[in-house]
Design goal:
globular, 14 helices, single chain, mainly alpha, about 0% strand, two-stranded antiparallel sheet
């Protein structure tokens, strides 16, 4: 019930973490809150030596938090009364994530070429608002068949999100890595070793996200199996348990082909 009240969501999560109530984790994962808080809850509540707890698989839930699909988020009430794209894009700047997720759900019902003019109109403003930037990157991940000029601006925006303008731990960076690799698989190859290197990419979730993207790339490029194995070896002994576990599972998956 706590997720119905915006002002109390984060306080409730802090209480759950402090009381070590792992049974509440499913509710946290579907709450309309920043992925950063969900990851913090997973890190704090998950028993370090097991992969499955109460019908939850560790790697699956981390994957889902990074992908942050609006269809998996529980919001309450009809907070968005309009279907106009201009108003929906303005709602992505709300500090209430319930409003943002509901607005995004409506936006993605439109075709990419219909969305693009409004996206372009608000893109510069989103680059100055890290909350809105997260939802713009989420939009990039959920739609395809963008116009050619849109793809250029989307690529620039992803590079901006992954640049030195922001700290490594920003919530939108893991998804930005995945989207950029999906959009520009060959172009992004030169960044993979950097994104997997703890020295250049200290936040573990970014290294984890790079592994997710590698897995998707391999699915359509199985003839280059050895190339992917070599890249994964960079993080097989990562200092972060979750990253090393993801690397091990991905290596097993690729080795099976």
């Amino acid at each position: 019930e706590f997720i119905k009240i915006p002002s109390q969501r984060l306080f409730a999560i802090e209480d759950i973490i402090d009381s070590n109530q792992v049974s509440f984790l499913p509710s946290i994962l579907t709450a309309p809150i920043s992925p950063s808080f969900k990851i913090r809850a997973i890190k704090s509540l998950w028993p370090q030596t097991v992969e499955d707890v109460e019908n939850m698989n560790l790697l699956n839930i981390i994957d889902e938090v990074i992908l942050d699909r609006p269809c998996n988020i529980k919001t309450y009430g009809n907070l968005i009364k309009t279907n106009k794209l201009k108003d929906l894009f303005e709602s992505l700047f709300s500090t209430d994530f319930s409003i943002c997720y509901q607005a995004l759900q409506k936006i993605i019902s439109y075709k990419s070429n219909e969305i693009w003019p409004f996206l372009l109109q608000y893109l510069d403003a989103a680059k100055k608002d890290y909350g809105a930037l997260h939802f713009f990157i989420l939009l990039f991940s959920l739609k395809s068949k963008w116009p050619a000029d849109a793809l250029i601006q989307i690529t620039y925006t992803l590079e901006f999100a992954l640049g030195e303008n922001w700290p490594d731990f920003m919530k939108f960076r893991p998804l930005a890595i995945i989207v950029l690799i999906n959009l520009k698989p060959n172009y992004s190859d030169k960044y993979l070793s950097k994104w997997l290197d703890q020295k250049f990419t200290p936040y573990w979730l970014n290294r984890y996200a790079a592994l997710m993207a590698i897995g998707k790339k391999f699915a359509s490029d199985k003839k280059n199996k050895n190339k992917y194995i070599k890249v994964i070896q960079l993080v097989e002994e990562d200092d972060d348990l979750f990253v090393s576990l993801k690397a091990g599972k991905l290596k097993e998956f690729i080795d099976s082909y």
